[in-house]
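Supplementary Note 3. Input sequence used for the single-chain structure prediction.
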Amino acid sequence: MRIALLPCSPTAWRRAGRLLGRVELPVDADALSERVATLVEPLRGLRFGKLMHAPDGLCTSMAQALTGPLGAAPRVVEALAEADMGLWAGLTDDQLRKRFSTAHRQLLEAPLSVQPPEGEDFGQACERVRASLEKSLRRNGREDCGIVLRPMCLALARYVLGDTRESDIWSRARGEDRPVVIDPARVAATAER
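The predicted structure, written as discrete structure tokens, is reproduced below.
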């Protein structure tokens, strides 16, 4: 079984480098069509049993657009909702660094110990994502699985699946716009060495 982590629909905020958090933004239909075309090609060898997605509009629109090309029906997983960025939603990384310098340094070194003002503790968000992935993937069996996520949740999922280090979570949350295919069995075998 392989797991394809897929970015949500593109937005003007993402192009401007702004943190999405859980803010509902309009889907850019033209950019969505372009994104679907770039996502499908690297996934051609996979056979999807499920196409799960977070409950927001950006993830739902991407999952629906991928349904035909990937041959899997979308399924909402509430627990895969994006980490709540609280008062940081809409800020660029530069603005965050200037306004919250201590927290920004912590994001680069140990992001799971950070909680944005009026937002969700990233360590707790990571545990929520871990529990949801374990449950959903156990039910999936051996079939390949696609999961459409917003940026921070996608980075947390990569961490949970053993594909990245904690110190890389923040940089990945700001820059993931391509599919990430992970073979959990291969990751586990590499970790055992």
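The beta strands are 3-7, 48-53, 74-76, 144-149, 180-182. The two ends are 21 Å apart (CA to CA).
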